[in-house]
Amino acid sequence: MSATRSADRSGSTAVKAAGSPTAKLVCLYLRTTGAATTAQLQEALGLRKLTLFSVLSTLEDRDLVERDESGQVTLHASRQ
Q1: Looking at residue 28, which CATH number applies to its domain?
Q2: What is the rounded distance in angstroms from the CA atom of residue 39 to the CA atom of residue 56?
């Protein structure tokens, strides 16, 4: 199996585990961009702040995303 296929499958795992359509959208965006701030996610995906923070909280609880001190959100390393 090629490295690309392996990466695609693990990224798909995070998307499948995300749950809601909005959470899947966030995971797909992060899989594509690598990382984004909450402001970038909000603007790119057209989400309200309250919705986005709720989704990110759920994704963090499921160990799918990480947020650092600077506000960058990334897919969890084990899910990439």
Answers
A1: 1.10.10.10
A2: 12
Q: Give pLDDT, residue 51.
A: 95
Is-contact 32 75, C-beta < 8 A?
A: no
Paired strand residues for 74:
66
Global confidence as pTM: 0.77
Q: 67: which strand partners?
A: 73
Amino acid at 2: S
Number of domains in the chain: 1
Structure tokens at 21: 């359509």
pLDDT at residue 55 tops 70 = yes
- Per-residue model confidence (pLDDT) at position 74: 94
Residue of 51, 50, 80 whose CA lies nearest to 65: 80
Domain of 32, in residue numbers: 3-79
